[in-house]
Design goal:
This protein has 20 helices and three strands. The protein is mainly alpha-helical. The two termini are 42 Å apart. It has a three-stranded antiparallel sheet with strand order 2-1-3, with no helix packed on it. Strand 1 and strand 2 form a beta hairpin.
Length: 391
């Protein structure tokens, strides 16, 4: 049992003790449990937990609840403990048994119902979780926690229209940041339509996204892709150039498409301009390597190697070194066998752990996500910057 489990047990014990002391002083002799029966049952339940006998513990606490229904907080804490330990079936059983009790106070019933919804959500039983949180919202229309849970469910199911409806309700309750989230959800619809070749639907969804967040980087990315798909490369380039100034990290996500558009429009100079801008602003290792390879293709190996020498002198990094070896091999006529040996050795070095990380929960990944898979918050992923362990 971990530290958190012990803390939960301690909290439950303290709550039960205080409640027991309170009600013992308020019950009449006829209604007060004989002797220390309640304490005995509680201690027995704790002993079962400590002995890793959770089913017996549930039965003991059920017996305690039957004889002393005001100790519901112990049941709630027990269910949370099981959920934290990944024992979802037991958590569900505990919270459902609490809801089966007659004459529960409204606040306790609400807590038990909410915890049951969290049990289902953590267990991945999304339909039942949705039903529980819908029940709560039907009774408490402004319950932000339940609305957030519903939004999370619909987003896990990729039911974007339903998620948009819930997020708009949250925005109407004064959660200003929800407007940017709604814009990202409309972008999900736009991206799906664009992938399916439905440019009209994609355009409509993007208009809805811009109405919620005119400065959405993802909206600008997709608007440029839509213009490119419609053959309007000049328009796409103008949008993406504005994004380059505003958010170079997001611009780097569509660097290949930008180059394709520049070639189609006959504006090769835009490629060079973008590369020099990125070279002066980006420090994330994978982006440094990407820019270096493009510089080598567009401006020549000597320019790319000068850029990498400057970066590597300031902060050594594996991906930049790999790019340096590749470009030097091609550009400067170095001994091919020696370069292959060096390149192979570099390739076998431990990889840099990730390219992106969440600024909220610290989740790391090789790919960019608009919604963090760790904390499930929107637009919190940023490029991992260069290694700071070197002077």
């Amino acid at each position: 049992m971990g530290l958190f489990d012990w803390l939960l047990l301690l909290a439950a014990s303290l709550a039960s003790f205080l409640l027991g002391r309170y009600w013992a002083g308020h019950l009449t002799p006829r209604t007060r449990p004989a002797g220390n029966a309640l304490s005995d049952i509680y201690v027995q339940g704790i002993n079962y937990l400590l002995s890793e006998q959770p089913d017996e513990a549930i039965e003991a606490f059920d017996a305690m609840l039957a004889s002393h229904p005001r100790n519901a907080e112990t049941h709630l804490a027990l269910g949370r403990l099981f959920r934290h330990r990944g024992e979802f079936e037991r958590a569900i059983r505990v919270h459902k048994s609490l809801l089966d009790k007659q004459d529960l106070p409204p606040d306790v019933k609400y807590q038990a119902l909410f915890e049951l919804g969290r049990d289902y959500l953590k267990a991945g039983i999304l339909d039942r979780a949705e039903s529980v949180f819908r029940e709560i919202v039907n009774q408490h229309a402004h319950d932000r926690a339940a609305l957030h849970a519903l939004a999370d469910i619909y987003e896990l199911e990729q039911d974007w229209p339903a998620a948009i409806e819930i997020r708009k309700r949250l925005a109407a309750l004064g959660d200003a940041q929800e407007q940017a989230v709604v814009a990202l959800l409309y972008c999900e619809l736009a991206e799906a339509a664009l992938s399916g070749g439905d440019l009209k639907a994609a355009s409509q969804h993007l208009a809805e996204a811009y109405a919620m967040d005119p400065d959405s980087p993802r909206g600008t990315l997709l608007a440029g892709k839509l213009a490119m798909a419609a053959g309007r490369c000049d328009q796409a380039l103008a949008m993406w150039e504005a994004l380059l100034e505003r958010s170079p990290m997001h611009f780097a996500l569509i660097l290949d498409e930008f180059f394709q558009c520049a070639e189609r429009a006959g504006q090769q100079e835009l490629k060079t301009k973008a590369l020099y801008h990125l070279a002066g602003t980006l420090r994330a290792p994978h982006l440094v390597a990407q820019v270096a390879r493009h510089l080598a293709a567009e401006e020549g190996g000597a320019v790319a190697l000068d850029y990498l020498r400057h970066v590597l002198a300031r902060r050594p990094q594996l991906q930049g070194l790999q790019a340096f070896v590749e470009i030097a091999t091609r550009a400067q006529g170095l001994d091919p066998e020696a370069c292959r040996t060096l390149a192979d050795a570099v390739a076998r070095l431990p990889a840099e752990p990730s390219r992106f990380h969440c600024t909220v929960c610290g989740f790391h990944s090789q790919a960019h996500y608009w919604k963090c898979p760790g904390c499930r918050r929107w637009d919190t992923m940023e490029a991992v910057q260069e290694n700071n362990n070197h002077a």
